[in-house]
Amino acid sequence: MTGFMWNLLLAVTWVVLTGDAGGVNLIFGMLVGYAVLGVMQRQIPSIRGYTRRLPRLIKFFFFFIKELIMANLTVAFDIITPVWHMKPGVIAMPLAAKTDLEITMVANLISLTPGTLSLDVSDDRRVLFIHAMFLDNEQELRNSLKDMERRVLEILR
Fold this sequence. Notes:
Blueprint: H1 2-18, H2 23-40, H3 50-80, E1 89-94, H4 100-112, E2 116-121, E3 127-132, H5 138-156
Helix pairs in contact: 1-2, 3-5, 4-5
């Protein structure tokens, strides 16, 4: 988060120095700030690793959009066909996420995907309970959710 704030500060500084407050100039300032932070991150411990997060975030964005579209299509297909294909159930997924922020992000992204809903976190914060509409293959669903968790943790850590 510190790296992003520095990037934003450098972008605003760029806008002030150039005298153009347009959106394109602000984006260009963000890119210039990103490059400057990429050079400086070895000397400043608080921003170390910042430039590795953006490519991961972009990859996660496209991954999540793909997952969102596929889940929507599955739910829509089940709604428009006369035969119900859903087999609802609850699974317990062990968490690799440790902090409150990580657990919250994983749980919310799972709940945002149609067909899955985060129900609860165990008292020791090691297990997330998830309701799934389509529990045909429990291990496949668990692997898919673990992949999403792994990608979220790559961004946050």
